[in-house]
Automatic annotation (TrEMBL):
Name of the protein in its database record: ABC transporter domain-containing protein
PANTHER family found in the cross-reference section: ABC TRANSPORTER DOMAIN-CONTAINING PROTEIN, IMPORT ATP-BINDING PROTEIN
TM segment ranges: none
UniProt keyword Nucleotide-binding, yes or no: yes
PROSITE patterns: ABC_TRANSPORTER_1, ABC_TRANSPORTER_2
Gene3D superfamilies: P-loop containing nucleotide triphosphate hydrolases (3.40.50.300)
Highest taxon listed in the record's lineage: Bacteria
Domain ABC transporter residue range list: 2-249
Keyword Nucleotide-binding (UniProt): yes
UniProt lineage: Bacteria, Bacillati, Bacillota, Negativicutes, Veillonellales
Alphabetical keyword list: ATP-binding, Nucleotide-binding
InterPro entries: AAA+_ATPase (IPR003593), ABC_transporter-like_ATP-bd (IPR003439), ABC_transporter-like_CS (IPR017871), ABC_transpr_LolD-like (IPR015854), P-loop_NTPase (IPR027417)
GO CC, alphabetical: plasma membrane
GO molecular function: ATP binding; ATP hydrolysis activity; transmembrane transporter activity
């Protein structure tokens, strides 16, 4: 369970560049909730995910993961409990290392450094099966350096790595924004499967309203650092793109084309 209570975050406080990124935001996700997040550019979506991950410490408010107050726990210590996929395919994997080496590291998350590189018998087969399932032709490329893969292959691998050891929370920040539509669809489908199989508590930012409606059981809309709509599973089932557009217009007046058409 994720419980965010009344968090606020202002960047460059007291300077001419002051940016209020989060303002008294609260959000509770139950175990297994898959919540999509929409909102115009600068709404604070990434700052919310970054605060949950510990990249930024909020100025006020608290963040609890499975009953533990992690508000001030370092990003490094929190990483054990959190799986992340970023918008940038270059960010989640180590380019100079082989596919299999990346998977090994992910599968040893939270274990001592000494053991991190040790292959166990069966690892190779296990990894082969895992990447085969992605349907992206990676099963014969386990010893390929990550840097040689496509963006879609890298994002799918990042997702595998983020979920190899079941995370308490999975955070996805526009994971398919840099991919072509066909590959994006594949990666989203795999994401959806893994989230359901592992019953993962998930937050996924997307600029595509259709995807926001299609995936997950919850949906929140953000504007000016706060949540302006929080749809329950029952409400989300009936929700349409028209409803979302109306809500956007009510609150922000205008909306970027990216959000409209994405
Ligand atoms: N590291 C940072 N330093 C300064 N300002 C930031 C930083 N991260 C985000 N912001 C500002 O906070 C606001 C919210 O940004 P962000 O959370 O990235 O929005 P979104 O992901 O919804 O587009 C924006 O005004 C942005 O410029
Ligand atoms: Mg963002």
């Amino acid at each position: 369970m994720l419980k965010v209570t009344d968090i606020s975050k202002t960047f460059f406080k007291g300077t001419t560049n002051e940016k209020k990124a989060l303002s008294h935001l609260s959000l509770t996700l139950n175990d297994g909730d898959f919540c999509t997040v929409i909102g115009s550019n600068g709404a604070g979506k990434s700052t919310l995910l970054n605060s949950i991950a510990g990249a930024y410490i909020p100025d006020s408010g608290t963040i609890e993961i499975n009953g533990h107050d992690v508000t001030k726990v370092s990003e490094y210590k929190r990483a054990k409990y959190i799986g992340r996929v970023f918008q940038d395919p270059l960010k989640g994997t180590a380019a100079g290392m082989q596919v299999e080496e990346n998977l090994i590291i992910a599968s040893r998350r939270g274990e001592s450094r000494r053991l991190r590189w040790a292959f166990s018998s069966g690892d190779h087969e296990k990894f082969r099966d895992m990447v085969a399932r992605l349907g992206l032709g990676l099963e014969d490329r386990l010893s390929t350096r990550i840097g040689l893969l496509s963006g879609g292959q890298r994002q799918a691998l990042t997702l595998l790595m983020a979920t190899l050891k079941k995370p308490d929370i999975l955070l996805l920040d526009e994971p398919t924004a840099a991919l072509d539509p066909k590959t994006a669809g594949k990666v989203l489908k795999i994401t959806d499967e893994i989230v359901h199989e592992q019953h993962l508590t998930t937050l996924m930012i997307t600029h595509n309203m259709r995807d926001a409606l299609k995936y997950g059981n919850r949906l929140i809309m953000m504007n000016s650092g706060t949540i302006i709509a929080d749809y329950s599973p029952e409400e989300k089932q009936k929700l349409t793109i028209d409803d979302l557009l109306k809500k956007f217009e009510e609150t922000s007046g205008a909306m970027s084309d990216r959000v409209l058409l994405g």
